[in-house]
Amino acid sequence: QVQLVESGGGLVQAGGSLRLSCVASGCTFSSYVMGWFRQAPVKEREFVAAISSNGISTYYADSVKGRFNISRDNAKNTVYLQMNSLKLEDTAVYYCAAGGRTTYKVGEYDYWGQGTQVTVSS
Fold first, then answer.
1. Cα–Cα distance between 80 and 96 in angstroms, integer?
2. C-alpha to C-alpha distance for 96 and 62, rounded to whole angstroms
3. Contact (CB, 8 A) for 62 and 4
4. How far apart are alpha carbons 48 and 50 in whole angstroms?
5. What digits encode the pLDDT tens for the residues 10-33?
6. Each residue of 77-106: pLDDT tens digit?
7. Can you say whether the dihedral through the CA atoms of 107, 55, 23, 68 is positive or negative?
8. Whole-angstrom Cα distance, residue 107 to residue 43?
């Protein structure tokens, strides 16, 4: 059974940084595209970033481009999201997801973590 477990969320001031981690188990991690999504209260879940299975290609939502960086370590079954220059509007629950193709679409991912809360304060 595939499990994804996120960590690294918390409370940070605007302009600060956080690094999220997501550890996968029960799967051949290096075969999966990994994505990060987020969901703020009363909003739909939205795409943040994705990385190809070999880590060579990365994709970002326009809202985070230049501030966030997605990476992965296939030897550790882990995907990371480095978040810099955080803004109030980055406040959300952040989810990692595993899928078979690189896409921004929520429905294209097969497995999801439980999420980790990121709160940016002024």
1. 9
2. 18
3. no
4. 7
5. 999 999 999 999 999 988 999 999
6. 999 999 999 999 999 999 999 998 888 999
7. negative
8. 16
